[in-house]
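Chain A, query sequence.
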Amino acid sequence: MLQAYALVGLFLVVTVVLLGATLLLWWLLRPKKPNPLKLETYECGVQTVGDAWVQFRAQYYIFALIFVLFDVEAVFLFPWAVAYNRLGFYAVVEMALFLLLLLGGLLYAWRKGSLEWV
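Chain A, predicted structure.
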């Protein structure tokens, strides 16, 4: 049992050493041409006016996460819909539970006001 953990530890050490060596090598080989122009804030080719560090409302991030969640749902629904005729009753019930779970999440986000774009 201890030998299995030793093997995992060995792989972990080798991984860390190789990663560190790679990062060190690229740090030594990178071009070093500091320039104040490279340190300026750049946004779509337009010079920024004022402070570039603006805080966004957390609601925008929550809205984006909800979009990603339902986008991934579509990825899971497509193969199920393609193979619908060959699936048994168990798969249909499973997908119905999946959709009910996602619908519950959507209703929760809606009631919390996370879908309001203000």
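The helical segments are 2-29, 58-82, 89-112. The chain has a mean pLDDT of 85.
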